[in-house]
Amino acid sequence: MAEEIRKLPIGVQSFEKMREGGFIYVDKTRYVHELVMYSGQYFLSRPRRFGKSLFLSTLKAYWEGRKELFEGLEIAELEKGQEGAFEPYPVFYFDFNGQNYQARALEDVLDSMLSDWERVYGCEKKGAPSDRFKILLKAAREKTGKKCVVLVDEYDKPLLEVLENDSLEEHNKAVFKGFFGTLKTYDEYLQFVFITGVTKFSKVSIFSDLNQLNDISLSEKYAGICGITEAEMENNFMPEIESMSGKLSVSKEECLVRLRKMYDGYHFHPEKQGVYNPFSLIKAFFENELGFYWFATGTPTFLVRRLKNMHFDVRQLADQELYAEACDITDYRADNPDIVPLLYQTGYLTIVGADSAVGPYILGFPNEEVKLGFLKSLFPEYAPEAVRGSGKDVLALRRRVLQGDTEGMCDVFTALFASIPYTTKDAPFEHYFQTVVYLVFTLLGQYVHAEVHSSRGRADCVLETDRFVYIFEFKVDKSAKEALAQIEEKGYAAPYGADKRQLFKIGVSFDSASRSLSEWLVG
Predict the structure, then answer these.
(1) Percentage of the chain surpassing pLDDT 90?
(2) H or E element: which one contains 34?
(3) According to the model, what pLDDT value does residue 483 have?
(4) Rounded to an integer, what distance in angstroms lies between the CA atom of residue 343 and that of residue 133?
(5) Any residues with CB less than 8 A from the CB of 350 and at least 6 apart, and which?
(6) Distances (CA, A) of 180 to 183, 202, 249, 386, 388
(7) In the sheet where 449-452 sits, what is the strand order?
(8) Could you give the strand order of the β-sheet that contains 322-324, starting from the edge strand earlier in sequence?
(9) Which is more confidently placed, 495 or 358?
């Protein structure tokens, strides 16, 4: 008997293609049922590649009356016998993906979409896009006798793509302000509205004018609307989990632990279970190995450059020392100096807890894929010459660490800091040095056990391999001898007293005047 072919939906964003093509589908249709039952107007923010387009495509199929696509799914049972279930409505589906808004005007994209519908409803092409949209809503209502459904996928793509072009960003905001203002003035023609995006830009008509738009981005009820929960993963992908555990030569339980550490951890409400990044998880099953798949689809160039220029203490990202109110992370303004909302909305930070004494949300990296991928992207901004094969990179340091070569480790660090360019716009050296040291040792943690500490009473850094333990203490404008003395006085080596591995205590001194490593002592 032929082995069943399991079709993993890598990049499949069409619900119709998903169902007719026999792809594995994680059933989210209970959320469709709940949303359409109230026939409201909604906004949902989720990071890129997180299943927003597929969910919107599912809504489109529902409102078009494609009942056959939902057979065997949860909504089929929930809507059985209900009046009006799967009844078709006129649908206006705006998809802002797949365009280069640096090269193509937003008005041209809207014109193309509106022209298609004008042919369907026999409308004349005249006036501004907002006027043409109003005419279409009225024509669709008159022709079908039903109110209209408006679905908007990635509304903010034309804004995010031009963030570093202030005039174009403001122009696109103005276009949207006029166009989507129609949703308020023509509410009587609307049955259902659902808008998705990565960010919630304030000062855009969708949010400043449409007070009837229900933002469900942080709703406990809809925390699992996109992404894959642990239960959904085990229920739908057990053959892939078993295959990967065999490839890694680990138990199924250990494989689940590794998957969880790498791709889980997104929380869109502090009291709800975390969800996996769906793109990364399914891609890992397809490749049958753990990898950095989300970052292969786009790097956060704008964000890392801005973090460096604002002298942001990146250690806060991993130490879970960032606190935010709900309103802080749901709105984005280009003139806001706080970059945390954008880091949250784009998926580099997530809710990791709540602290009522400081604020409702504590933010941090969701998982190892995001943490290491983001820091890898950030490292070249601080050390542009530390490329692979330069002798100044993390892999060069890894070789010395595994060999117990403390002199070689010193050479790597000395060359690394000597190669870092400095301008008067840069942060004070202490911040620069702390950031580079943090990035180097955190990235080294991919290959050896590394602990990087910023709190008092603990060594600055501890590295462990099968054969060696390294305890580091760093000083700026103080001697390496003082650093070694602190390791002794504070008893940093005490936990390794009975350890059979070779122990190195390393004191390192940096000179702020020359911005270089000045002393390296091994005790």
Answers:
(1) 59
(2) helix 29-38
(3) 94
(4) 34
(5) 265, 266, 267, 268, 344, 363, 364, 365, 366
(6) 6, 14, 54, 47, 48
(7) 449-452, 461-464, 468-476, 502-511, 516-522
(8) 322-324, 359-364, 350-355
(9) 495
